[in-house]
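Form 7-S
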Amino acid sequence: MTLKSLIRLCRPKQWVKNLFVFLPLFFSGNLLNMPKLLGAAVAFAAFSLVSSAIYCLNDLRDAEADRLHPTKRFRPVASGEVGPKACVVLMALLCAASFGLLTALPRHQAGATAGVILIYLVMNIAYCMKLKSIALVDVVVISLGFVLRVVAGGVATGIFISHWIIIMTFLLALFLALSKRRDDIVIYNNTGVKARRNITRYNLEFMSQATTLVATVMLISYIMYTVSPEVVERFQSGLIYLTSLFVLIGLLRYMQLTVVDSSTGSPTRTLLRDRFIQLCLCGWILTFVAIIYL
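Output:
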């Protein structure tokens, strides 16, 4: 066992998912407010540590199945680089450090943020133990995890969270989770290896229809958000709808990678490697920055 294998077990690349805690700060126009930015940073760090603890539990529970997977067999626990006892100890330390970090926040905000992270922790323990084996429930739990990240960012900074951000976060996470499941089905069809126990309750036809449905609902919801009177009034701009272009193109690109290339088994890896999606994301962010902050 080495330090490198322990770091790999924590999956720090997956921490990019926890950037969702900054969304309330960004959309409220408080990104340059240092006290609130520090509060969001604390929430980000705490969520990153507790999510790494969940990855430890997940890898420990799935070690046997991971050994049959073409890529997951190289994970530290599945490959034998990290033993079960070390994995449990690391998981406990990560949880303790996560809640310990929250003491840096004001008392009320620390308590509320701790409550959100505790809900996330309990939900994901249930996911690792049982819920991940129930088709549809598994992707819903993943999506709720992203919603909790946004809620944590809101309570840690004392920023109101609109229903729009909750809806869009849930739909986006659900779309990504369904796309990831489709990749598992492709592996199962090609190799006969079950990446997860509920894989037989999904098939390519269902996943294609499900991802298309969620993508359509998400795009329509986003356009409704950009033209809603409350949003136009809040941002003092009628140009928010322009950002829909980047959302549409980004969705199409991701669906292309999913259906044509079957390469969305890891949404994080896709985000970090695909230049087209990165350009869409940058265009979306810069357009919002121009509208909100300039």
